[in-house]
Amino acid sequence: MKLHTVHEGGGLCRTIEVTVVQRQAPQLPPVTKFSPVADESETTGEELYIPPLNFAMVDNGIFRSGFPDYPNFAFLQTLGLRSIIYLCPEPYPEANIEFLKSNGIELFQFGIEGCKEPFVNIPEDTIREALKAVLDVRNQPLLIHCKRGKHRTGCLVGCLRKLQRWCLTSVFDEYQRFAAAKARVSDQRFMELFDVSSFRHLPISFSCLKR
Amino acid sequence: MKLHTVHEGGGLCRTIEVTVVQRQAPQLPPVTKFSPVADESETTGEELYIPPLNFAMVDNGIFRSGFPDYPNFAFLQTLGLRSIIYLCPEPYPEANIEFLKSNGIELFQFGIEGCKEPFVNIPEDTIREALKAVLDVRNQPLLIHCKRGKHRTGCLVGCLRKLQRWCLTSVFDEYQRFAAAKARVSDQRFMELFDVSSFRHLPISFSCLKR
């Protein structure tokens, strides 16, 4: 299903495309059980989980990572996800869509181009819409991901941290931990200038900001 | 108050010193309100929180960081902590003890020396005791910290991840994200060889491992 959200601002009419693959709870096919991989060490003989690249917990019910692939599905099942917040413009792979469908996970796609410096232009409106989806408790637990979990995901999480009233140094520290050698000044400038005041009225129940 | 836990193993009798500053809920003095710092940007006029260096959420009710200092206290208050798992042998600073007392936070100290390679000798028994304290839901929400939140904290979190059945690559990926240029082969070897089988019987209610 495609949702087209139209925004008016600064005399311009911009269209933000948000693709939502709806949860089909009542007609769910039987959940495919993905198995963790066998532990090759002879000491335990147990199976292991493979979290996606750059996986981390952001806050209660909010996770982040790079692009999850088939080997990560068993791990993702342990998170009990309700939604995926996908930040790339490319179509979601068929295998991932199947995984989402069979686990009743909704897909929110916010297509942000993965530009390289100095031609980076992070679309503020799209980040705003994505942040709204992240803050909606009905979508949690959720996983935010782009391709490598560094730039687009880093910017969105950084904006969330600003809303949690983290000082910029800590926002950048976290961003750089994931982006490492690929950290971008333009991303950090975007986060610095991102105005969170319009989100202040929203109810937030994070562990990192009791209010 | 000092607790001395005696362990027998391999014919040797080892003593592990665990310092516990007990929560004094009934006789609590009035909670000191630590204020976040003023935001210098004129756009919001709001106050900001300063998370400790290398702060992150590990899982539900489990946080990690470097050594928290006075400027971080307002932020720490938002976490609603019940305990601190402190991994250095040095006495806890007076200001931090006061903060803990006035917020009813219990201190568990597991004194692990901060050695440098190639003379690293991570005491397995102490990590085991610390992991037990971390897993005890009565102590959560809790903050694990050492000095910089890289090596001692990284090893303890890595052992927790093994218990959560993360594959070693992901355990190391997370360790290296925090240790960065200071990552140690000896720490990684310790995590690889750490046997979690004795913890398997404990009830665990993490989001990253539903079982």
Q: What are the key terms here?
A:
alpha/beta, two-stranded antiparallel sheet, disordered N terminus, 20% strand, TYR_PHOSPHATASE_DUAL_dom (chains A, B), 211 residues, diphosphoinositol-polyphosphate diphosphatase (chains A, B), homodimer, PFA-DSPs (chains A, B), inositol-5-diphosphate-1,2,3,4,6-pentakisphosphate diphosphatase activity (chains A, B), 9 strands, seven-stranded mixed sheet, globular
Description:
2 copies of one chain form a homodimer. Chain A has 211 residues and is an alpha/beta fold. Chain A is 28% helix and 20% strand. The first copy, chain A, has helices at 73-78, 94-102, 124-135, 152-163, 168-179, 185-193; strands at 2-9, 12-21, 37-38, 47-48, 56-59, 62-65, 83-86, 106-110, 142-145. In chain A, the strands form 2 sheets. Chain A has a 7-stranded mixed sheet, sandwiched between helices. In chain A, strands 3-4 form a two-stranded antiparallel ribbon. In chain A, helix 4 packs antiparallel against helix 5 (168-179) and helix 4 runs parallel beside helix 6. Chain A is globular. In chain A, 38% of the residues are buried. Mean pLDDT of chain A is 82; it is low at 1-15 and 24-29. The A-B interface holds A 36-37, 43-44, 46-51, 53-61, 75, 78-80, 141, 164-167, 169-170, 173-174, 177-178, 180, 195-197, 207-210 and B 36-37, 43-44, 46-51, 53-61, 75, 78-80, 141, 164-167, 169-170, 173-174, 177-178, 180, 195-197, 207-210.
